[in-house]
Amino acid sequence: MMDGLKIVIAEENALIGMDLAELLTELGHHVCALISTETEAVAASARCKPDMMIVDSILANGSGVNAMHRILEQGPMPHFFLADYPSEVFATDPDAVVVTKPFNLHELACGIAAVRLCCGPLVPHALELARCIPSCPFPTCFQRR
Questions:
Q1: Where are the domains of the chain?
Q2: What is the rounded distance in angstroms from the CA atom of residue 81 to the CA atom of residue 7?
Q3: Average pLDDT, the chain
Q4: Three-state SS for 85?
C-alpha cells in the first residue's frame, strides 16, 4: 500500500468532487482542499502545499489548465487533469496527463501512480507513461499525447 498523499481536488461539479474525495480516502490519501474555481485552486496550492493536485480541465470562473500554469510558475507541482474531452487539454498543454471522465477507482489509482512516477519535481513531464507503468493491464486508463 502506498503512503497517503496530501491532495487538493479542483473540480467544478460538487458531486463529482465529493465522490472523488471519497475514492481518494478509500485509497489512503488525505484531501486537504476541495475547491471549484481557478482562483481557489491557485490559493489552495499555496495554502495546503499538497503532494499532488487533481484538476478538472474546466473550473468555475476559469480553467484548470490555466490554474496549473499559474501554480507551476511558482515551482513544481505533481498533478493530472480530469476531462470529458482530453483533446481540449492537449491543445494547450501537450504534455498533460489526463484521466478521462467518467473514471473508476482503477483509472484514478493509475493516474496517481503515473504522476508519482513520471511527474515529480525531478522528472520531466514528457516521459512516456508506458515506461512508467508497463504492467498496467488497462493502457487506456489515462491519456497521454
A1: 6-144
A2: 13
A3: 82
A4: coil
Q: How far apart are CA 139 and CA 66, in angstroms?
A: 27
Q: Is there a contact between 142 and 136 (Cβ–Cβ < 8 Å)?
A: no
The gap between the terminal CA atoms of the chain, to the nearest Å, is 29
**DSSP structure string for 20-74:** HHHHHHHTT-EEEEEE-BHHHHHHHHHHH--SEEEEESEEBTEEHHHHHHHHHTT
In a 3-state reduction of DSSP, which class is residue 82? strand
Identify the H or E element spanning 8: strand 6-10
- pLDDT of 126 over the 50 cut: no
What's the topology of domain 6-144?
Answer: Rossmann fold (3.40.50)
